Amino acid sequence: MNPPGKFYRLLLTGAAGGLGQVLRERLKPLATVLRVSDIADLGPAREGEEVVSCDLGDKAAVHALVDGVDAIAHFGGVSVEGPWDPILNANIVGVFNLYEAARKHGVKRVVYASSNHVVGFYRQDQRIDADDPMRPDGLYGVSKCFGESLSRLYFDRHGIETVCLRIGSSFPEAKDRRMLRTWLSYDDLVQLVTKSLVTPAVGHTIVFGASRNAGLWWDNRKAAHLGFEPKDSADGQRERVEALGPPLDAADPVAVYQGGAFVTAGPFDD
After folding, report:
1. Residue 210 to residue 212: CA distance in whole angstroms
2. Which sign does the torsion angle of CA 86, 91, 96, 101 carry?
3. Is 140 a known active-site residue?
4. In a domain, 1, yes or no
5. Coil, strand, or helix at residue 209?
6. Who contacts 139 (Cβ-Cβ below 8 Å, separation ≥6)?
7. Distance between CA atoms of 68 and 34, rounded to whole angstroms?
8. Which residues contact 11 (CB under 8 A, 6 or more apart)?
9. pTM for this one?
10. Percentage with pLDDT > 70 across the chain
11. What pLDDT is attached to residue 4?
12. What is the DSSP string of 26-88?
């Protein structure tokens, strides 16, 4: 029997991605076995790991991937704006395959890596919370809206609890002025994922993933039961970031909307 707060087998999808690589190392204390998966090469299994290559669009492969796991941290899929077909396969078909597999194999907790781009067409002078309507800023954002809605269905109908993480910008440091508000440190990311996995009775929770930055656009009071208390802040990076270049024109959509460059990106110009 595993001790309280520890799973026997925890699945991490997208383990070759930027955040997946961080979580691959730092979620190990939560599980006896960490099953890591991606379509990209993950190298050999490390101590306490199982490595499984899987295309999320392959139903049979996803069902085999989920067999025997106790919980899922789903970070797999396309993470940027781009052509529709790859987004459709990984983020729409793939997330459906994952929840169907979770249902059939009795998995009752999923942490779903959603995105702030679900609400990217709110203005930067607005402050929003989990109850405000979705306003995606592109096809990628639409795919994350689908994932959040699907996870809601699987909670209401099948009792699978999900915490949807509307991740801001998780990098070693802020890269531009927008990230001074949206930055999520790796330490705060790991805390957020951990709380989302181990907190009892989360139901269907939406939480915004950002560190303790000044001028946040997102209110997390409706996810207070997770106990997520970010420790880091981008505020100390302001001087370095502002020295990178002048601010954008105030009328530029990239400066107007919370989604930043995503509001003008994508295959809509032909």
Report:
1. 7
2. positive
3. yes
4. no
5. strand
6. 81, 82, 84, 87, 266, 267
7. 12
8. 35, 36, 37, 65, 66, 69, 71, 72, 73
9. 0.95
10. 97
11. 54
12. HSGGGEEEEEEEESS---S--TTEEEEE--TT-HHHHHHHHTT-SEEEE--S--S---HHHHI
C-alpha 85/C-alpha 89 separation (Å) is 6
Number of domains in the chain: 1
Residue 21 belongs to what domain range? 7-263
**Is 269 a domain residue?**
no
| DSSP classification of residue 15 | T
Helix (H, G, I), strand (E, B) or coil at 248: coil
Closest CA to 166 of 124, 200, 134, 198: 134
87 φ/ψ angles, rounded to the nearest 5 degrees: -65, -45
pLDDT band at 269 (very low <50, low <70, confident <90, very high): low
Question: Looking at residue 246, which CATH number applies to its domain?
Answer: 3.40.50.720
- State the angle between helix axes of 18-26 and 186-198 in degrees (0 to 180), rounded to the nearest 10: 60
pLDDT attached to residue 266 = 80
pLDDT in tens, 146-176: 999 999 999 999 999 999 999 999 999 999 9
Rg, Å, the chain Cα set? 18
> What residue ranges in the chain does DSSP mark as E strands?
7-13, 31-38, 49-53, 71-74, 109-115, 161-167, 204-209
Q: Which is catalytic among the residues 99, 122, 140, 257? A: 140
Q: Which residue has the tokens 């009752």?
A: 108
2 is a domain residue? no
φ/ψ region of 14 (left if φ > 0, alpha if ψ in -120 to 50, else beta) reads left
